[in-house]
Amino acid sequence: MSDQSSTPQTESPEANYQSTEAMFAAQNAPEGDALTQVQAELAALQAKSGELADQYLRAKADAENARRRAEDEISKARKFAVESFAESLLPVADSLEAGLTIKDGTVEQIREGAQATLRQLIAALERNKVIAIAPTAGTKFDPHQHQAISVVPSEQEANTVVSLLQKGYSIADRVLRPALVTVTAPK
Hints:
187 residues; 3-stranded antiparallel β-sheet
């Protein structure tokens, strides 16, 4: 037996090509397709990146516009916040001026006019959510709404309101001025 019969002869891949150019063309064909495919993917990703960058810039501009509009609204709200309150006080001012023009009014007429003006003022305050804090005697002292001016001995429970010296006022659950009260001393 010969060595040639036991080992099959394999031809080199270069032997199938008729020229070197044909061999390079065959080898580069898959790479050329791959290069074309990669270039197409790159172009698609660049287009997608451009779209996302545009969307980002638009969203950023929208957010900036919304922030600017909100700042303008807040500025206007602060500027005109007291407008409604001032409008509700104008009738009170008118009543006071009208009362001052009366030269020959009796004490009873002046008293009635002052009471009517006070009712107008209280109504104007209530329309604007300004509520009086006027604890009655026997009410438990609340340091959030009351200010103790003096402490007096009493038979009542300690820290109980004995008398109201001056009303307090709150607006929307926020104390503008605490009520001035006298409270009982601890036993």
